[in-house]
Amino acid sequence: MRNLSSNNVGAFFDGQAASCANTELEITEQDIRSRVKAKIPRLLKKTHDALLIEEMEVCQGRARVDIAVIADFLIGIEIKGPKDNVSRLPGQVRAYSQCFDRVVLVVDESLAA
Predict the structure, then answer these.
(1) pLDDT averaged per 10 residues in sequence order, the chain, 113 residues
(2) In this predicted structure, what is the pLDDT of residue 77?
(3) What's the pLDDT score for residue 81?
(4) Cβ-contact 66, 54 below 8 angstroms
(5) 36 in a structural domain
(6) Is residue 30 part of a domain?
(7) What is the DSSP string of 3-36?
């Protein structure tokens, strides 16, 4: 768990993640996760304090969200890297919709087609 501050607010997806995917190096889910965590303060806007929990079980253990942000509202962030299988995504979305005020899906461009 980690406390966050919204002092350094930048554009949430300002092209950095997209430009990383266009390089010759293969981007990993960990690369995506690091970039997403760096941009979380953008989602918080005027909220100054938040708690970040990685790999949080939700819905009585039926699903696990990659990153949960607990502030004045709840944000669930699911990351799908280039090697992930998206077959579980519909069930994950249903579970997350029951638990979070906002759900953010971050998908590697190789899976978006």
Answers:
(1) 32 39 66 89 76 90 91 90 88 91 88 72
(2) 93
(3) 86
(4) yes
(5) yes
(6) yes
(7) EE--SS---TTSSHHHHHHTSSSPP-HHHHHHHH
Q: Is residue 113 part of a domain?
A: no
The answer to whether 77 and 58 are in contact (CB under 8 A) is no
Question: Tokens 């998206």 identify what position?
Answer: 86
pLDDT at site 98: 92
| Of 78, 9, 15, residue with least CA distance to 40 | 9
**Token pair of 7 as six digits:** 């002092």
Q: How many CB atoms lie within 10 A of CB 104?
A: 21
Q: Is the pTM of this model over 0.85?
A: no
Q: Which residues pair with 92 in a beta bridge?
A: none
- Number of domains comprising the chain: 1
CA distance 77 to 50: 14
